[in-house]
Automatic annotation (TrEMBL):
NCBIfam families linked to this entry: adk, PRK00279.1-2, PRK00279.1-3
Species this chain originates from: Lactovum miscens
A Pfam family recorded for this sequence: ADK_lid
Keywords noted in UniProt: ATP-binding, Cytoplasm, Kinase, Metal-binding, Nucleotide biosynthesis, Nucleotide-binding, Transferase, Zinc
GO terms classed as biological process: AMP salvage
Domain Adenylate kinase active site lid: 128-164
GO molecular function: AMP kinase activity; ATP binding; zinc ion binding
Subunit structure as annotated in this protein's UniProt entry: Monomer.
Protein encoded by which gene: adk
Protein name: Adenylate kinase
Top-tier EC class: transferase
InterPro entries reported in the protein's UniProt record: Adenyl_kin_sub (IPR006259), Adenylat/UMP-CMP_kin (IPR000850), Adenylat_kinase_CS (IPR033690), Adenylate_kinase_lid-dom (IPR007862), ADK_active_lid_dom_sf (IPR036193), P-loop_NTPase (IPR027417)
Organism placement in taxonomy: Bacteria, Bacillati, Bacillota, Bacilli, Lactobacillales
Gene Ontology CC terms: cytoplasm
Annotated positions binding ATP: 10-15, 128, 137-138, 201
Amino acid sequence: MNLLIMGLPGAGKGTQAEMIVQNYGVKHVSTGDMFREAIKNETEMGKLAKGFIDKGELVPDDVTRGVVMERLSKEDIKKNGVLMDGYPRNIDQAIATDEMFAELGLNLDAVINIEVDPSILVDRISGRFICCTCGATYHKLNKLPKVEGVCDICGGHEFYQRDDDKPETVETRIKINEELSTPILEHYRKLGLVKDINGMGGIDDIKSSVKAVLDNL
Ligand code: ADP
Ligand code: AMP
């Protein structure tokens, strides 16, 4: 199964991706996670990406396409399927996605679109914190680890908040993503691939909605 997951920053893509990966065994390919890893490792690509990410802007398309193509070309994707999160983010990237999938013989099964009222995004993003070891996502009000200070997934004890989750950057990120996502969704709607999910409920309700869609594919 090969999927895209879409939604504004903070809509809950990463949170739902954890469930999808656990239940369906697909590989989670998040461009944001790959950039953060490259920044942590201080690679040349990471240094370049950081300049854009810190301002809430998009990393240039040619850089991002290279990163995605390299990851999608690995054998595990063909074997297990993929869940793309954070890519594509503009119509050129959507066309690049279609080209890369065609080149690699991957068939896109669905685009999961998590719809939320943008007014809730700042609260979701400002409460977000992440496990340093495995990247699992939590929220200081909505989703605390079951045992305080211990990651549910890997048992890690250290957590961080993303640098680009500060209010000034968040506004820019939401605005850019709102404008650019409409043509992407139109493109995939024409192909009959978009599955709209109401992202305004609790995490478990949304998981059930996503699962119902995927079980029906
Ligand atoms: P995205 O990957 O779309 O940027 P995340 O999955 O990281 O979004 O979610 C953003 C924040 O909101 C996280 O702190 C997460 O724990 C929390 N969150 C996710 N889904 C919900 C929800 N349905 N209700 C409340 N909080 C949520
Ligand atoms: P995310 O983790 O998806 O919220 O992404 C964090 C940041 O990484 C974004 O604000 C962008 O600066 C950058 N980024 C992630 N994915 C892409 C993409 N597909 N194209 C360009 N920039 C991206």
